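Proteins fold reproducibly. Look at a sample protein:
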Amino acid sequence: MRAAPGRLLQEERTRAEISKVYFSAVAPRTFKKNEYTMVHLAMYEKEFRNIVDEIKADYDTDVKETKSGALKVTEEDAVRVVLSSPDAEIEDNEEVQIWQGEYLIFDFAVKLPADFAGKQILFTAAVYINDIIATKLKFLAKISSWRQQKIRTDREDILSAFVSYASQDRNRVARIIQGMRKARPDMDIFFDVENLRSGESWQNALRSEIDRRDILFLCWSHFARQSKWVDTEWRYAFSHKGEDCIEPIPLESPSVCPPPEELSRKHFNDKMLFIINGGNAEDFLRQGYPGDEGNG
């Protein structure tokens, strides 16, 4: 049977909108204590690689680029970058833009403390596509003197995930995971946790599945907070793979269900609920996140 013209047009449009993108981190040569310095993260299609060269020329920066392959995004996807560092203060460390093709530049103001005495600065840039973690860039600014530095960039693509959830939330989580699989068909998402929990050797099986995957999606609710299974799963991931491997999916507002104390620095907030509850990328930027009103 011949497909309807509208369907063919939609399929052609969908194929055309998918882009392969790369990342580069750029910073100036000089970081001065107690002053703000701009750090840039460029996301670009291969044919727009020159945008990185232009940034380097403007700031006279020596940069080593990511070489670990491309990430797929689609037009109108909301791209959120969260920059963090244990060594420096970052003004407004979270920025969201809509991918329209070609390239995006994310800018962050970084301030070294007046008493900073180290020789290097560690940064981690977490990249989310429609609020689903897609990749992490870790770059180390090695400072041999206050006049010169070089940046080494490493990229860790998020290609697999273990989903931890309470059985009472299964239907809601299933819908969320279905949406994630449509957005990230390349991601291996282990969701059928119930089969493992019912087996005799559930602890070893769970640990093996968590070990094999890049991250653990923690679907957090008052049911999850009361679940011994969820508690076992996220605590194992936390102790064996670190805080960075846990990505919260808040099913309820933190005012209703506060996060575990050990994960208080993670993003358990109403921002993620906007995408989960059906918000699209344009509304994501135009209206802002629910719960942001009055926060200045």
